[in-house]
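Question (not urgent): is this output format expected?
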Amino acid sequence: MPQLILDRPRTVAAAPESAAAVAGRPRRALGTAVAVAVPSPQPDGSAPLQFRPESEAGLALGAARADVVRLGFSSRVPSLAAMRQLVAAVEEEIAAVGRDRSSIRIVLDVEVVVTDDDAAARRKRALLDHLDALAGIAWAPSVTRAVAAPSGLVDAAMTLGERVGVDEVVLVPLAGGADVQRLRLLVGDLCAA
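Got this back:
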């Protein structure tokens, strides 16, 4: 199961598994363990080498050098099927350069919108679908974003991550201000659980 992250990672485990038990297994083998993170500087000021492949050469470079390969939906990767293919290509390239798959995290950025309840989520989804249609874009972002009440937002984002086969999911709020604060509170509640 993918891990859940809000913004940049400082992982706080929400599952009771010990770090030693987790360290010896690939990330996908963690089952239902979920990690949630909130933005904060690294204790030593360093950050993992993150890479966003935009070409075949970039994909090869990311597989050879990166600690984290970050992916996101776009007109180039407009659907879950296209993202699954990209994840498979990243994994093939990692194997081709001789690196251990478990040493590299594949992360998916998921656009999210927090609503008050399920009815508001349906209305917001319909509005966003309408705006996407008016924009005349070549892909349907509605199938690649999570719009839900706090009770279903994590499941929606995690489901997207599971369906494409990534290790972690980064929540990217479509709106700022109060929505970002609501996400931080949601993440805090999950950590306390």
